[in-house]
Amino acid sequence: MLLELGSGTGAMSAVLAQAGRRVILLDWSRDCLRFGRDVVAALGGNARTVQADLLHALPLREGSVDCVWSSGVLEHFTDDELLAVLRESARVSRRLVVSLVPNAASIPYRIGKWHQERTGTWPWGKEEPKFSLRPAFEAVGLCVSREESVDVEHALTFLAMPEVAAFREMLRSWLGTLHPQAKASLNQGYLLVTVGVKA
After folding, report:
1. What is the pLDDT of residue 199?
2. What 3-state DSSP class applies to 116?
3. pLDDT tens digits along 113-133
């Protein structure tokens, strides 16, 4: 059983359900949950939904799901709030807690974000990218088995300004010449993936 925190449209859980996973969508918005359930159903799956505020105790039993995961959620919280969310995630999970947040080390993403914020075109509100979530995961008793960045290609899309188009394409070409391990070692992916294991 996979629990998605801040499920929004439910699109990612729908793909997991299509692959045979049992999914739970959790969001504070009843409309999002209704929409997400319909998306999962449209792909032939079933989803349980839970309406809840992540800043309060989750209405789930201890160890009631195999994995708690989120994508594009934890970067919107203060450090104290993030710890509270992770603590609850660890409580309701039997095995894993996984998060995907914007990677603070990704230079293309950071430049694009900075430019959009400066010009008033940033659409995502307050967003604090993270260099690492390892200390936060470990603070709530999770052992981090893996932390790495993914999706360098998406990071490049943040360099959308016309004046850097040539540089963006040059950077894309250069990255294309690198061995996957060398590319990964640069840590320039848009998302930082942290996998925590229950002790």
Report:
1. 82
2. helix
3. 999 999 999 998 899 999 999
Which residues in 72-95 are b (16+ Cβ under 10 Å) and which e? bbbbbbeeeebbbbbebbbbbbee
Q: Rounded CA gap, 124 and 157, in Å?
A: 15
Amino acid identity of 58?
L
- Other beta carbons within 10 angstroms of residue 32's beta carbon come to 19
Closest CA to 157 of 148, 165, 149, 145: 165
Query: Long-range contacts: 8-11, Cβ < 8 Å, 24+?
Result: 8/32, 8/36, 9/35, 9/36, 9/39, 10/35, 10/36, 10/37, 10/39, 10/40, 10/47, 11/36, 11/39
Kindly give, in sequence order, each residue whose CB lies less than 8 Å from that of residue 94, ignoring residues fewer than 6 positions away: 63, 64, 65, 66, 198
Of 82, 120, 116, residue with least CA distance to 196: 82
Is the pTM value of this prediction over 0.70?
A: yes
DSSP for 132-160, please give it.
--HHHHHHTTEEEEEEEEE-HHHHHTT--
The amino acid occupying position 66 is D
CB 121 within 8 A of CB 162: no
Look up the CATH superfamily of 53-198: Vaccinia Virus protein VP39 (3.40.50.150)
Torsion of the alpha carbons at 160, 192, 12 and 141, rounded to the nearest 10: -160
